[in-house]
Amino acid sequence: MPRLTALCCALLLCACTTLPGRDFHRTPSSPTTEPPNPALLQPFAAAERTHAAESGFRLYSAGIDGLLLRLELIEAAHSSLDLQYYIFHGDESGKLVTEALRKAAARGVRVRILIDDTETIRGDEQLFALGGQPNVEIRIFNPWRYRGHSTFVRGVEYLFSHSRLDFRMHNKLFIADRAVALVGGRNIGDEYFQVDPEWQFADDDVFTTGPAVQELAVSFEEFWQSQLAIPVQALLPAKDTSAAAAEALARRVTEPHKAATAGVNYEDKLSANEPLASLLTGRAPLNWARAEVAADSPYKGKQLADGATVSSLLFAHPHHLARSREQCCGAGGLHALPSSAAAVGGGAARDPRAPGKPARHRAIGEALALRPLQPARKTAGIRPRRHLRRLDELR
Description:
Blueprint: H1 2-14, H2 38-50, E1 55-60, H3 63-76, E2 80-85, H4 92-106, E3 110-115, E4 136-141, H5 151-165, E5 173-176, E6 180-184, E7 205-209, H6 211-224, E8 229-231, H7 243-251, H8 257-260, H9 266-271, H10 276-281, E9 287-289, E10 292-296, E11 313-315, H11 318-326, E12 368-371
């Protein structure tokens, strides 16, 4: 009890101070110089030429397909993997993804992982051992100062720092070689991939290729370079992200007991490289459409020069984002998500055709959305009120 009291007192003294790890040196990230990965680009090249300025999409509602796609894309990556998630659990699925990422980094793939810090539970810190692996960087978005798992201590910190800690990152994004991406409502964890026998979430993934991937990559860079993205080494003891920790991770082999016994054909699909193989061979055709990426802004809540507050979505045009970064969330390039499109967020999406009833599919997950491109009048940087495109139109 004295130790707990001392810890709470220390948190109280630090509650009103700056963001933990804010002054820690960050290694600048630069675009990879590796040539494009033909294995992930060539299968869609002909369709891209036919569908000029359009992106290809395919919706995956089965959770196990979301896990398999991630593992298979990690294996297929040649130069870079960028992951951005609200939750990255240390359960069976999280360990399988972590071990696959380590192998990718060991063969020279640059791996960057950005995660939120609110819903972490005991065991999730297994991911941080990757920080000792060459070619891997891990950053935590708006981290808690207390790094343990006591609900009471976290409650004390939140009580005195709620204005900062209530600002979270719900984005869920996976980009391989800047060629293809997965977006949607799934975090990393057994309950999202239909392998948890106790409880599961009903979410979707959207496989994406084409111009939308570059806009998604721009959104990732905005969060990765933001002041709130703190390197994990600034927050943990050195041993937790050391070369020794990475070596111990390299010796670990997680057996997919839950996935193999969940009745979802995990082993058969994995041995056949499915569902990725069907995408690359055309057996699973894509839906092509013009689309614009809208992503939650890392600057939301900040004051603009004209006194307005950034509190909604950022449309991920590179020139918009560059200007917003230069102005520290200046009004140019920041566009509000219309309230009529609120169903795009995570949680229980509602079907506008049947008010009060849950939609059949979630829209594109918390804080990421697709929007159809249409000529639109702009007024003071705010897009006109209109609905966003629902994901069930992309089947």
